[in-house]
Fold this sequence. Notes:
Keywords: Glycosyltransferase, Metal-binding, Transferase. This protein is an alpha/beta fold.
Amino acid sequence: MDNAVKYIISNEYQKQQENSPLRDVVYCIDKNFLLGAGVSATSILINSKEKYNFHFFTDYIDNHTLEKFNLLAKNFETNVYIYFIDSAAFTKFPVRAKWSVATYYRFIAFHYLSDKTHALYLDADVICKSCPDELFQLDLTGKFAAIIPDLDKVQEKCEARLGVTGLAGKYFNAGVIYINLSEWQKQHFSEKAISMLSDKSKEFSFLDQDVLNILF
C-alpha cells in the first residue's frame, strides 16, 4: 500500500500556516472524471473564502489536464496536489460498469494523508452550491466521520445483504465524507478494507461503500 503512489505533482500557491491550517479536500478518480473533479473543486473555491489543499489521486494524467490544474491553483491561490497511483494492485478487486478501480483509491488516499487530521472526501460529480464552511467546523472527536444516510430503497436491503445487524437506517452514501483521519489511522482501516476486499467469499454490491459501512 505504501508503494501505490508512484509520484506527486505539486502546484502550490498558498503557504501552509500553523495558526490557520488549510482545509484538505480529496478526490479519487480515473481518466473519465478528471474534468468533473476539477469542476467540483472550482465550485468549492467559488463559494468559500477559506484556503484549501486539493488532493487528486488518479491513475491517469496528461499535459493538458496538468495545465488546467495548475491554472486552477494559480487563479484561486490554492494548492493542488496530484498523486499518480499504480492501479495494478487493485485489478483483483471487483468493479462495475459505472465504478472503476478508482473507487478504491480512497483507501490509499486516507492512508497516505496520515499527516492530516481531517479531510473532506468528495466524488467527482459533487458540486458545491453554497458555503461549505459548516462541514469543516464539525466536531469529530471520538467519531470516525460525518456522513450522509443513503436513500430509503438502499437502506431496506443493506442489513440482510451485508449481514450486519442494526445497519438498516444507518447505511450511508460514500460520495461525501468528512473523515477523521487520525481515527482512521488508529483503527488501521485501510489495511482492514484491503483485507475485506481480498476475501473472495464475500460479495459487495456497492464495492468500497459497502466496506466503509461495515468498518464504521
